[in-house]
Amino acid sequence: MLLAAGRGERMRPLTDTCPKPLLPVRGKALMQWHMEALLRGGVARVVINTAWLEEKIIQTFNDLFGIKPLFEKREQLSKKERLELLYSREGRDFGAALETAGGICRALPQLCPQPDALGGDMFWVLAGDVYTPGFAFTPAAVSRFAASGKLAHLWLVPNPAHNPRGDFGLDTRSGLALNLPPEDLRPHYTYSTIGLYRRALFLPPWCDVAPGNPQGRVVKLAPLLRAAMDQGLVSAELYHGPWTDVGTPQRLAELNAP
Question: Does the reported pTM lie above 0.85?
């Protein structure tokens, strides 16, 4: 699932007319970097949630994405050369974004159409406003997660200047993510907004939203993760590659500087 529904308030005025995931970074739409990496990793389907200026995202990518030359018809690409794109339209259906967990709950029927099938209850989640060109969405990572029995596996990064206190801790011996209070002196790291998840995290007892979130409830992800961390059900690892939360015009300009 590619998260692309936010308003991008801190990016104004750039986002007054352009959704933040479509802002250009080094010649490509920001979210396209993720889409290309997912395709290289063997992912076949991507659900994109939309709200703010959602028609522009849908018109840009439609229902198929491939990285062959533009003159080739995307319909002629093989399944290994294209992503099938599905949309969870929070703007059309509810008038605004539903926050991360609310959006995932809404998209669950699309994300896990066959939850009882082998691997049918697991999916990647990543934010469309993060630039991390070297990250690899590997089948090996999915296999390790499947074997772990955990509800989520997070990639954490060293704390950037705009988030010096970080989000979560990490037990490097067990590989568990830790719900540390701010005053805890152990190292805190920032959630990269990239993770692997199981459908079960968005169902009772962890989440009380009805399947498909028909009422459009706004639900944050962090409380669900923290509750699961307290039960030892969230694993994590550190990612040291290039990573930028493109949250301000200044950060965008720095990425695009010659």
Answer: yes
Q: Which residues contact 89 (CB under 8 A, 6 or more apart)?
A: 49, 50, 51, 54
Residue 242, φ and ψ in degrees, nearest 5: -55, 135
Selection from 30, 34, 28 nearest residue 1 by Cα: 34
Give the 3-state secondary structure of residue 99: helix
Instruction: Kindly state the DSSP code that residue 10 receives in the 8-state scheme.
Output: G
What per-residue confidence (pLDDT) applies to 76? 61
Calpha distance 240→134 (Å, rounded): 10
Dig out the tokens for 182 from the structure.
Answer: 């701010």
**Four-way CATH pick for 2-256: 3.90.550.10, 1.20.1250.20, 3.40.50.720, 3.40.190.10:** 3.90.550.10
Nearest-5° Cα angle at 139, 178 to 116: 80
Find out whether 3 and 49 touch, Cβ atoms under 8 Å. Answer: yes
Could you tell me which residues come within 8 angstroms of residue 95 by beta carbon, excluding any fewer than 6 positions away?
Answer: none
d(CA 28, CA 132) in angstroms, rounded, equals 13
pLDDT for the residue 80: 66
Domain ranges of the chain: 2-256
Collect the ranges in the chain with pLDDT lower than 50: 69-71
DSSP string, 52-91: TTHHHHHHHHTTEEE-S-TTS-GGGS-GGGEEEEEEEEHH
- Residue 25 three-state SS: strand
